[in-house]
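User: I'll paste a sequence; please echo it back and then give the predicted structure.

Assistant: Echoing your sequence first, then the prediction.
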Amino acid sequence: MSIEHPQLPLGLSLRNSARFENYYPGSNKEAVATLTAVAAGDGEPLVFIAGQTGTGKSHLLQAACHAAGSHGLSTAYLPLAEMQSLAPEILDGLETMSLVCIDDVDAVAGHAGWETALFNLFNQARAAGNTLVFAATRPPAECGFSIADLVSRLGWGLTYRFKPLGDAELKAALEMRASGRGLELPDDTARYLLNRISRDLPSVFELFDRLDEASMIEKRRLTIPFVKSVLMDN
């Protein structure tokens, strides 16, 4: 979330670890490439990402904001599932941001005030030449919005349906995450983890946060006994 927009509530901030470099795209490479271009100020002015929980949509939206900030662009990240109790007017003024990433947009489907605010934001940001990225569990037409023109607008850009990682891809994601933390992940440990952890990217990210901290005393080698002890402690 950009600190340049003081109306946004405190406590909503980007995870520092949410970067393009540590996201394993699997079969979603085209979408990640599009978001990377968007974050550099190029490419599509509207991107919609649809995918089930755990495919890393929030990670990518935050990564886009981090990358855009490094290019000197103003950004805002809003997870609407955490903001439903707030007034829709929280969106006022966001059209001036170079990049606005709206997560869980389907969380406010059916709420007239929120839908109207999103419709207005879309039109104003487009008129200003700025970029919007949305994420939801389903494509725009399946989100349950009651304003038909909002559904139409959200479908104007590129829509990507994210696919969950298969076993081989999830193993590669584990290995990439470990390598990025300077951790050694033997094959037998990777197979052990695949059989015991939730098979979604947020769980993988959270697990390696814990392993990274705990492994400082284990010379950073992730053996099965060590990993088992960490899993049992939580």
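The beta strands are 46-50, 75-79, 99-103, 131-136, 158-161. Confidence is low (pLDDT under 50) at residues 1-11.
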